[in-house]
Design a protein that fits this description.
The chain is of the alpha+beta class. 42% of the residues lie in helices and 17% in strands. Strand 8 (119-125) and strand 9 (132-133) form a beta hairpin. Helix 7 (453-461) runs parallel beside helix 9 (481-493), helix 21 (674-687) packs antiparallel against helix 22 and helix 25 packs parallel to helix 27. GO terms for molecular function: protein-macromolecule adaptor activity; zinc ion binding.
């Protein structure tokens, strides 16, 4: 079944549209949305529903329709379930349906009926198939109902919750209705019924409209009631929400004080009290209104608990001025309902969409759209709104229409703009950038005219307008803060690719900030709160990522600006924030503030800075500089540092500190760079000779293990006559004779020590010792010392030094030495004799063993097997070894093949081929002796290659002890196979 809501008549109902009567309201090209301008605000479609009788009343709530026909038939339509239900309870009754009241959730229905003599009230729900009388009420006619909008009540359809009823006598009644109170034998749907207030004061005063609401989640409630001339408002807290009647707690406060009301123009009898809720939030109505004889009473809800008021101001939208001109011949509307920005007025032949916001120029119409009807559907009766879904329904005697509201804010934003209601205009234009730009531009201009320059600057900065034009507006002001705010805000809107604009604005802002700071400094306000706040603001500005990028690329320009204003401290801060330590250190050096320069290097280590400033700093503070350099450890390259520490004429204090760093680099950083060691040696030679020998000894005597250049060091030591060091360096260079010559100049002991060093070269050692001996004999002419010298050196004999003695020396001087030498020779001869005898005996033993082996034999059992193939040994030619290992000849060759070289393998194969050929050709008996002789020789040669030693016990297997089972090249392949 097709939903009644969607069963529209084919085509749109013919409407009669009048031409626009207010061209001045809106420039047709203002927002550039031509398509929207062509679509009317009001567009209706006829519902495909044709009742049998004329419609007298219709209400819609939460897609639930209740309508009354002129024949007293009630119909209920559930649009969600596409069901129509007819209630004919009153069809045969003398009572006539006067008013229908449907709650906003579509759950509860009240029907006010009556005749000339009495009035009755009936109650029904969605689930209740028949009407139930509300007790035996036959009092004054119920003219208005204030439903309960509490969502908790909506969750159950069995009760209305506390509601208020207003009657034609001016009495306000509180009651609660529901099917759960219809107990057996009682037949009543009323829980309680209580008259809580009377506004008639003895004169029957019909209550035309009645509403009550709770404010949010608070205990505050407010009640509105309208009569023909007054608007009553009641505001107070309900302390006990479970008390019944609940709302009497509010009215009780007005029993002793006059009720608060407004005198209003005469309210038409058919008017209703209409509320508009934003986003279906029934706790916060936006505004309310009703029809009077002169115009629409309209007010925004603004609860004031202290003053006990519901609204602070109101407007009267006069019927006579709807079209912007005075019209005395106006018609009062039949009905009204609210949209977000309009009130829809129903006339006998048309519907008007009237703007709730009056234009600034009263000559401009408030009618934003008109929709005309033909008389084919009977008389227009009412326009109503479904508060839950927001749909608007209009019904005539024989037709029902549904209205669609399209882009109703298209004109309202311009009205707000013309009236200077910028915030309201911006709320409408959020999704329309063009309109929003127009609103902000107008707002910025207005703020500038009213001298609110700072607010104006912030708005101008967010607009896409001429930068130069706006800047010129603010440059003419004496105050510089607005232009600064404008530039800061404008900078935030720029993208990284707008590099030129960013650079220009950044430099300009830096100039403005520094100028302000300079003015305060000139006025001696460096310690004032204003100066500190401004400085902090400047710092925060410079720390922005987009600004930092610009600062990095424009260092020089920014420093020039800061320097031009003499703001040295800020310049240092900026350099530190941007890690421009080079500039900071250079500044402190220029100021001779060595302590601060060292502090920067210590707290902000950066290797290039040390390489750059080490030479300057170490001259002025050598101890502190070297300590900081040492602290850096491996972060610095010693070679680069030392390049900065080379001074042609340094002081002793400076040189000693350089030595300290060089020693640290060598001993702690393991620096082996030759130039570093050479530099240390050069400084040792001049400033600390005592450490030179320790260093040279530590480096060792092997030229391959030293880190310095020995030739360079030797040349320096010779220049400075350091003979002992020269001896050590000569030893390193392998100049042993020169080393001994130099050592003799120092002392005999040093020469002896030097000569005893080359232990592995006996000839060299002997030569060096002879040099010392010659020196002792020739230079000192001391025979006794020469004799002692012979005792110390085992390489030199008496006969070696005899040529050095003078001719007049007699044998008596070295008789003991000669005797000792002869005794040594005799002992050597005796030892040689003993060795010869031992060798002869050993040879004889070997000969006897060889002879015994010639006659030796081994017994081969039939069960013996080959040590390689494990088959019987005697089946093939074989070899047997004294170690008890036995091999077939073929098996032995196969086992040895992987471990012998290719040439030996080829020889073995060749010998085997020769033997095979000899056995095959051995058929001639006359040649058998020669063949056997040749064959024996070949076989002997083969035996020497194969049977020289056992394969398992000989040298071949021993040499394989370190060979891995799997070669490196095959390891990966085998591992993958196993996986």
């Amino acid at each position: 079944m097709i939903s009644i809501l969607d069963q529209f008549e084919q085509g749109v109902e013919n409407s009669y549209k009048t031409a626009s009567t207010s061209k001045q309201l809106m420039d047709e090209h203002f927002d550039g949305d031509a398509e929207t301008r062509k679509i009317p605000i009001l567009s209706k479609k006829k519902v495909n529903f044709s009742p049998n009788e004329k419609i007298s009343q219709l209400l819609v709530s939460n897609e639930y329709v209740v309508l009354a026909l002129v024949n007293n038939v009630l119909q209920r339509i559930n649009l969600k379930q596409d069901s129509i239900e007819e209630i004919d309870t009153l069809k045969t009754s003398s009572l006539k349906v006067k008013q229908l009241f449907l709650d906003p959730f579509g759950e509860h229905l009240l029907i006010s009926c009556g005749n000339i003599n009495s009035s009755h009230l009936f109650y029904a729900t969605k689930q209740l198939p028949k009407l139930k009388p509300v007790g035996k009420y036959q009092g004054s006619e119920i003219t208005s109902v204030a439903w309960n909008y509490d969502l908790k009540v909506k969750s159950t359809s069995s009760t209305t919750g506390p509601i208020l009823l207003g009657n034609s006598s001016g009495t306000i009644i509180e009651t609660q209705l529901g099917t759960e109170f219809d107990r057996f034998f009682q037949g009543s749907v009323v829980q309680y019924w209580k008259e809580v207030f009377d506004i008639s004061k003895g004169q029957p005063t019909p209550i035309i409209g009645l509403q009550y609401h709770k404010v949010g989640n608070s205990d505050l409630f407010y009640i509105l009631a309208i009569t023909s001339t007054k608007l009553y408002q009641f505001v107070d807290n309900v302390l006990n929400k479970d008390e019944r009647p609940m709302l009497q707690q509010i009215f009780n406060n007005y029993l002793t004080i006059p009720e608060r009301f407004y005198e209003v123009p005469t309210v038409v009898k058919h008017s209703k009290l209409n509320f508009y809720f934003l986003n279906n939030d029934f706790t916060v109505p936006k505004y309310f209104g009703f029809l009077t004889e002169l115009g629409i009473f309209f007010a925004e809800v603004d609860i004031n608990k202290d003053d006990k008021t519901i609204f602070s101001s109101h407007e009267l939208i006069e019927y006579s001025r709807l079209y912007g001109r005075e019209d005395d011949d106006f018609t009062v509307p039949l009905s009204m309902t609210f949209t977000r920005y309009h009130v829809l007025l129903l006339y006998p032949e048309k519907v008007l969409a009237v703007s709730l916001v009056a234009p600034a120029d009263r000559s401009i119409t408030q009618v934003m759209d008109e929709d005309y009807f033909s008389d084919g559907h009977g008389r227009l009766l009412n326009v109503t709104k479904d508060l839950i879904t927001g749909t608007i329904w209009l019904y005539a005697e024989r037709a029902v229409f549904r209205y669609k509201i399209t882009k109703e804010d298209r004109h309202v934003w311009k009205v707000y703009l013309d009236k200077g209601m910028f915030e309201e205009a911006k709320e409408i234009c959020l999704n329309n950038p063009y309109r929003m730009n127009q609103v902000l531009l107008k707002q910025a201009e207005n703020l500038f005219v009213t001298e609110q320059y700072e607010k104006s600057a912030l708005i101008y900065a967010s607009l896409d307008v001429s930068f130069e034009e706006i800047v010129l507006k603010f440059l003419h002001l004496n105050e510089k803060k607005p232009i600064k705010l404008f530039l800061v805000k404008k900078l935030e809107s720029l993208k990284p690719q707008d590099y030129t604009k960013i650079t220009m604005i950044t430099l300009w802002l830096i100039e403005l900030f520094t100028t302000e700071l300079a003015v305060l400094r000139n006025n001696k306000k460096e310690k004032s709160k204003e100066y500190i706040v401004l400085q902090d603001s400047f710092k925060q500005f410079l720390l922005q990522p987009i600004i930092q990028d610009c600062v990095h690329k424009n260092w020089e320009s920014i420093y020039d600006i800061l320097a031009s204003h003499g703001d040295v401290q800020f310049m240092i801060w900026l350099a530190l924030e941007n890690q421009d330590y080079r500039r900071v250190v250079q500044h402190y050096l220029n100021e001779e503030n060595i302590a601060e320069a060292l502090n920067i290097l210590d707290n902000h280590p950066f290797s290039e800075l040390f390489y750059t400033f080490s030479s300057d700093l170490i001259e002025k503070a050598p101890v502190q500089t070297v300590s900081i350099l040492i602290k850096q450890g491996h972060k610095l390259d010693p070679l680069k540092v030392i390049n900065e520490l080379i001074f042609p004429n340094s002081s002793e204090r400076l040189a000693l500190e350089i030595i300290r760093y060089l020693e640290y680099s060598i001993h702690c950083l393991n620096c082996n760079v030759e130039s570093v060691h050479n530099y240390l040696i050069s400084l040792y030679i001049i400033y600390n000779k005592d450490k030179l020998m320790n260093y040279l000894k530590l480096q060792g005597r092997e030229i391959s293990g030293i880190s310095y250049n020995p030739k360079f060091a030797l040349r320096l030591c010779r220049e400075h006559h350091l003979e002992e060091a020269c001896v050590q360096l000569s030893i390193v260079l392998g100049l042993w004779e020169a080393a001994v010559d130099l050592a003799l100049k120092v002392s005999i002991d040093l020469a002896k020590t030097t000569a005893s060093l080359p232990n592995n070269d006996m000839e060299l050692s002997k030569k060096l010792w002879l040099k010392i001996a010659q020196y002792v004999v020739e230079q000192n002419n001391d025979i006794e010392q020469a004799m002692h010298f012979l005792e110390e050196c085992k390489f030199i004999k008496i006969e070696d030094i005899l040529p050095f003695f003078p001719d007049f020396v007699t044998i008596d001087h070295f008789k003991d030495a000669v005797c000792s030498s002869l005794e040594e020779y005799n002992q050597d001869i005796q030892n040689l004799k003993e060795e010869m005898e031992d060798a002869t005996k050993s040879a004889e033993v070997i000969r006897s063993e060889i002879l015994s082996f010639r006659n030796s034999y081994m017994l081969i059992q039939p069960s013996n097997v080959c040590s390689s193939c494990q088959e019987q040994l005697a089946t093939k030619a074989f070899y047997t070894f004294s170690c008890s290992h036995n091999f077939h000849a073929e098996c032995l060759i196969k086992e040895m093949q992987p471990y012998i070289d290719s040439s030996t393998l080829n020889t073995i194969k060749d010998l085997q081929n020769q033997l095979s050929t000899m056995y095959q050709n051995n058929k001639d008996s006359s040649q058998s002796i020669k063949v056997i002789s040749r064959r024996d020789k070949v076989k002997e040669s083969l035996d020497k290659l194969l049977a020289a030693e056992c394969f398992f016990c000989g040298d071949i297997m021993i040499s394989l002890i370190n060979k891995p089972f799997i070669e490196d090249g095959d390891f990966e392949k085998i591992r993958q196979e196993w996986e």
